[in-house]
Amino acid sequence: MRRIAAVTACIVLMGIGNALAMVGGGEISLKSKKGDVVFSHDNHVEGMALACTDCHDKLFLSKGQHKKATMKEMQKGKSCGACHNGKKAFSVKGDCAKCHKK
Fold first, then answer.
1. Which residue range is the domain that position 85 belongs to?
2. Strand order in the sheet with 36-40
3. How far is 85 from 51, CA to CA, in rounded Å?
4. What span, in angstroms and rounded, lies between the C-alpha atoms of 83 and 88?
5. Enclosing H/E stretch for 9
6. Is residue 79 a part of any domain in this protein?
7. Rounded CA separation 47/41 (Å)
8. DSSP readout, 44-89?
9. For the domain that residue 82 is a member of, what is the CATH number?
């Protein structure tokens, strides 16, 4: 009986550890007339080694606040354009197909 309880406890603890290690947020799909944009948290957090706080509590405070971002705003350094300025990351000007998928 003790062995079953110990094995069960180990499985539960391993599951909790894996859940805490996962990157939050997943993918966010933004609708656009020029082609939808899929934002990947994994690409930004794991791929670019960004911390959640690099964007959240600065650029993106809530989902409701950022349901829509315009190219004009981004070219002024707001939203995605804060990093995608051609210096820190590829620019929002130019190759539309990098973000917009038809």
1. 25-101
2. 27-30, 36-40, 100-101
3. 19
4. 5
5. helix 2-21
6. yes
7. 9
8. IIIIS---GGGTBTTTB--TGGGS---HHHHHTT-GGGGT-SSSSS
9. 3.90.10.10
Place of tokens 């706080």: 53
| Counted domains in the chain | 1
Q: Is residue 3 part of a domain?
A: no
d(CA 73, CA 48): 23
- What is the distance, to the nearest Å, from the Cα of residue 27 to the centroid of all Cα atoms in its chain? 6
> 26-84: per-residue pLDDT in tens?
888 888 888 999 888 888 888 888 888 888 866 676 666 666 778 998 899 888 898 99
Q: Return the residue matching tokens 């606040």.
A: 65
- Cβ atoms of 85 and 24 within 8 Å: the answer is no
Kindly report the pTM of this predicted structure.
0.66
